[in-house]
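Q: Could you fold this chain for me?
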Amino acid sequence: MRLLCAVAAAVVVVVAIVVAVSLKSSSTGVVAFRTVDQIAIFGLGVALGAAILALGRSRVDADADGVRIRNILVHHELPWTAVRAVSFARTSSWATLQLENDDEVAVLAVQAADKERAVRAVEALRALHAAKRAQDSVPPPLLYPE
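A: Sure. Below is the predicted structure, expressed as structure tokens.
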């Protein structure tokens, strides 16, 4: 995903540069393009390229203590005790963490398009989660005190 985003961003920026450079020499007869227009086209290309790169910065890091998720704009750091399950539905585009408070956190770094790599990542997250749950097994609280 990161490689695809980097290539797409580079293509957008290169196309913007080519358009910006060739813009001054073209005129429709009604509109004459100036240097300001060239700068604007270049700036739009760079802004679009940066937005495309932001799509590729998603990341997930997990260890025995918890999981850290960086999506496009949001960053989550969760202990395994806050996670109820790691899920990846067949119809979903990315994995999700089901939290104990009934919330869900998307894991955009694990995409369905990654196929086997995504399966291995979900299995690894589930293994870390299961190991932590087994280590911290605490019986549920009693409904009625004895």
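A (continued): DSSP finds three helices and six strands in the chain.
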